[in-house]
Design a protein that fits this description.
The complex is a heterodimer of chains A (141) and B (253). With 141 residues, chain A is of the alpha+beta class. Helix content of chain A is 26%, strand content 18%. Chain A is elongated and about 55 Å long. Chain B is an all-alpha fold. Chain B has ten helices and no strands. Chain B has helices at residues 4-27, 36-64, 70-75, 86-89, 95-116, 122-150, 154-167, 179-186, 193-210, 232-247. Classes of the chains: A alpha+beta (141), B mainly alpha (253).
Chain lengths: 141, 253
């Protein structure tokens, strides 16, 4: 099995909190390599306390095993830090269809400390008449 | 004289323990926040901090080389082996007190991580860059609440001014150094705290003024946390946090 086939299988692994989005579209898979029949996958968490990371790791190992790949090595790295810019265009469309406004480019930046929030349109009706109630969401994507 | 490895282990505990203990404190608000949005916000901050603690304590275990996991370090160390800043273990009180404590800590944490990204230790630099994104939100959140409460009603103002005066004595510890700092600064690993002290003072004074609060004048510095000498509150936190893994050492969840 080559890298393209492995990536096709990873397309089946979904974010447990937003089950329409694959881990590839979420941008948490940083590297896939095959060295001497060992599949190495590097993941990065969306945020430090993400409780879904273990589930994602287990799901990856499980789907690869089902397809005959026995030796899988999943590694988690923090650097470079995940950014919403890594969500693919397809992922952004899927988020919107799921009812979540896709993030604007580089929505986490230092200038936001005292500045105003960036403008985000409604994912349901595209209204621009929105206001920020809270920056925190229950699943912290 | 401490070895560089011992110093790095201690330094990682200092960073991880502060995040773990203040994160645990914030988790006590779960289901008790003043409004739903705030309940969610403060628990998100808590989750970030506990997640950060997990990754840095895992690294601490690796540096130590004795086979201790992040869970072993969190659940099987007693008070005197904890290296967190004293402010992190102070009780929540009402929401005004929690916000005040968080604002003082976040202001430090943000500036600290901003310097730690330049560490020559590859893990710590990456850890800092990741955490800084999250702590940026924490600081924004606590700053906005301090402004709102300080510049709100007489009652809301009193409820942040009193804890501000009370917690001020713990802020000197942010910039206290010991042998660990000396060893690691010379290697480019640790943050030179004297560099961020004026930035912290300026930022905090600016927000306090804008919030129409009074800058405390108490110059007493209560130290001890980074040496393992804690206030009585830490023992109570650990009793609750460590109960399950100590009573049921084989428990899995």
């Amino acid at each position: 099995m080559d890298e393209v086939q492995i990536r096709a299988l990873l397309e089946e692994v979904k974010d447990p909190e937003v089950p329409v989005l694959s881990v590839l579209d979420l941008g948490v898979v940083r590297e896939v390599s095959i060295i001497e029949n060992v599949v190495n996958i590097t993941l990065t968490p969306t945020y430090s306390g993400c409780p879904a990371m273990q589930v994602i790791e287990d799901d990856i190992v499980s789907i690869l095993k089902k397809n005959g790949i026995e030796t899988v090595n999943v590694k988690t790295v923090l650097s470079p830090a995940w950014t919403t810019d890594w969500i693919t265009e397809k992922g952004k469309r899927q988020l919107k269809e799921f009812g979540i406004a896709p993030p604007e480019k580089s929505s986490i930046d230092k200038n936001s400390i005292m500045g105003d929030a960036k403008f985000i349109g409604c994912p349901q009706c595209d209204s621009e008449n929105t206001e920020m109630i809270s920056q925190f969401w229950f699943n912290g994507l | 004289m401490m070895s560089e490895q011992e110093a790095l282990f201690d330094y990682c505990l200092r960073i991880g323990d502060s995040s773990l203990i203040i994160g645990h404190r914030l988790s006590e608000w779960c289901g008790h926040g003043p409004i739903l949005e705030e309940d969610i916000a403060i628990i998100n901050v808590s989750l970030d901090l506990v997640g950060q603690a997990r990754s840095v304590l895992k690294y601490a275990g690796k540096v130590e080389g004795q086979g201790r996991s992040e869970d072993d370090l969190a659940y099987l160390r007693d008070v005197t082996f904890y290296r967190n800043l004293l402010i992190c273990e102070q009780p929540n009180g009402d929401y005004g007190r929690t916000i005040t404590r968080q604002f003082l800590f976040d202001s430090f944490h943000y500036l600290f991580l901003q310097e730690l990204v330049n560490s020559t230790d590859e893990f710590l630099a990456g850890y800092a860059a990741k955490s800084l994104k999250e702590v940026t939100y924490h600081l924004q959140h606590s700053t906005k609440w301090l402004l709102r409460l300080g510049d709100g009603t007489e009652e809301s103002r009193r409820r942040v001014q009193e804890p501000l005066d009370d917690l001020w004595r713990f802020t000197g510890e942010f910039f206290n150094t010991n042998e660990v700092d000396e060893i690691l600064i010379s290697k480019g690993i640790a943050v030179d705290l004297s560099k961020i002290k004026p930035l912290w003072e300026k930022r905090v004074a600016t927000v306090i003024e804008e919030a129409t609060l009074t800058l405390p004048t108490n110059a007493w510095k209560q130290l001890g946390g980074t040496e393992g000498r804690h206030t009585e509150h830490l023992g109570l936190i650990l009793a609750e946090m460590q109960f399950l893994p100590r009573a049921y050492p084989d428990a899995k969840w």
